[in-house]
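Protocol step 4 of 6: structure prediction from sequence.
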Amino acid sequence: MLNTAELKTSRTTGPLVELVKKSFTGRLQSPVAQAAMLEVQNVSVEYGAGRAMAYALEDVSVAFRPGKLTLLMGPSGSGKTTLLSVLGCLVTPNRGSVRVLGNDIAGWSESAKTELRREKIGYVFQAFRLFRALTAMENILLAMELSGRTGRQAREAAEAALLAVGLENKGHLLPKEMSGGEKQRVAIARALINDPPIILADEPTASLDSKSGNQVAELLLGLAEKQNRLVVVVSHDNRWLPLCHRKVVLQNGCLIGDDMTRNTTGKLGRVSRLSV
């Protein structure tokens, strides 16, 4: 039977892992003076117990800073969505620490973490998660109401959010009347409505066609580059590779690569209109 050290080595080696490692440029992330906005240290997430115990994440440490779009990659079951859920304070790790905006959230109550998510973290899901009986505008207004913002100012902010994602004339539509790309942009507008410095997106383009996927990808890129937000995207979609500043790769719950990919971007198309 493998001991703990041998088991971890076996999980981070092999033909697939070596192939992934060869794709890196070697420009690894290095410590910088700017403080991390979001980070995990030696985080492990376990499921089951005893011989049935399995790691979703094992001893993962990674930090994120604003102004960059980071792509989380890896095969299915590698721990990408689990790591995103830990970063978004949706999953509490069995071991390790999570720091958000300089705050170690260990020991925080669920209500305190809910308030942190509502005010500081915008979450974008693959399945949009819009209320089918509400219009695009009403879906955004509901998110604002949960934060205690109502009335004329809330409506004006929701209109500005729709304008920012190019849907200023679509606020009256129900989700069934919108395309997949339009629904995802409504979801992004909703995530932005409380002006969070952190945006986390789980497979935001997986169910979209090429045109809609590119629009959503460039929109999220603009949030990082033009608004200096921290944007982390989980995706298998290769369209993200030329857009991201950094790629972080997981394999079997372990971090196997952290690579700077670029520092600047080219033409961003419509994202220049962002002003949320």
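Step 5 (inspection) to follow. Residues 210-225 form the longest helix (16 residues).
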